[in-house]
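Milestone 3.1: sequence recovery, worked example.
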């Protein structure tokens, strides 16, 4: 009897350990290379502790959903693929902010002002870095990290650890519409800035046409920069709701991709 009990306890601990390792892989991929969490602003130790805590919270959810997973090469690759789906979808939010900052920089005549991005180690426009910092600050102050944790819990209910099968054609068909949507989302974010700067260009052109002797060309850049910054400050109040909606849309898109894998 004691031998049977010991074997049962050993099987339970083996199941818990396998589930914990697989969930840790799923969470660690997002925290290691995800666009929102891979910034060097977060220390490596902080991300390790966060990954372990999130895994510890998610293990009971996974254990209650299905039979214990088998730890192996295929299950590890499956968890890497699930984390990769989240990285690809959430990466579009970073691209939205980056593209919006580039568009704003061109309109503000800051297109030649570049900074070295410490997270990607490449030169990026000044306003693109500023927009990404704004977006990161808004996401964490709005509590969207809890929304991400809820999405991970839902993913465990859709796909238990080690059960995902990557289908490149399904992933490609799901990501292509999202890429075009990210482009239009960036234009929506910068629409007020584009409208103001285009109106300034039209007004300066009309004044130059009516009074050719006035040095209106030298006023174009200062007017566009000042009015554009004023509009940017005025529209920052709309950013939390807008980014929250985009963040939710991207998480739901990631869940749809995972559900398509289940149906396939």
């Amino acid at each position: 009897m004691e031998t049977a009990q010991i074997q049962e306890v050993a099987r339970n601990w083996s199941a818990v350990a396998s589930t914990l390792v697989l969930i840790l892989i799923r969470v660690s991929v997002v925290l290691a290379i995800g666009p929102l969490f891979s910034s060097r602003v977060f220390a490596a130790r902080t991300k390790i502790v966060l990954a372990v805590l999130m895994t510890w919270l998610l293990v009971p959810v996974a254990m209650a959903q299905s039979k214990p997973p088998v730890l192996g090469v295929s299950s590890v690759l499956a968890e890497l693929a699930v984390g990769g789906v989240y990285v690809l979808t959430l990466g579009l939010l970073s691209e939205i902010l980056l593209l919006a900052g580039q568009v704003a920089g061109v309109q503000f005549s800051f297109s030649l002002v570049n900074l070295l991005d410490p997270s990607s180690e490449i030169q990026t426009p000044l306003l693109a870095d500023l927009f990404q910092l704004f977006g990161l600050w808004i996401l964490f102050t709005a509590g969207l990290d809890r929304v991400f944790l809820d999405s991970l819990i839902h993913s465990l209910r859709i796909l238990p650890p080690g059960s995902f099968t990557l289908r490149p054609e399904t992933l490609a068909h799901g990501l292509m519409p999202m890429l075009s949507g990210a482009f239009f989302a960036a234009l929506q974010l910068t629409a007020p800035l584009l409208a103001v700067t285009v109106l300034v260009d039209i007004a300066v052109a009309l004044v130059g046409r009516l009074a050719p002797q006035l040095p209106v060309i030298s006023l174009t850049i200062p007017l566009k920069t000042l009015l554009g910054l004023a509009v940017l400050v005025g529209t920052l109040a709309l950013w939390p709701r807008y980014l929250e909606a985009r963040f939710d849309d991207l998480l739901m898109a990631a869940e749809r991709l995972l559900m398509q894998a289940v149906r396939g």
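The longest strand covers residues 114-117. Residues 5-10 have pLDDT under 50 and may be disordered.
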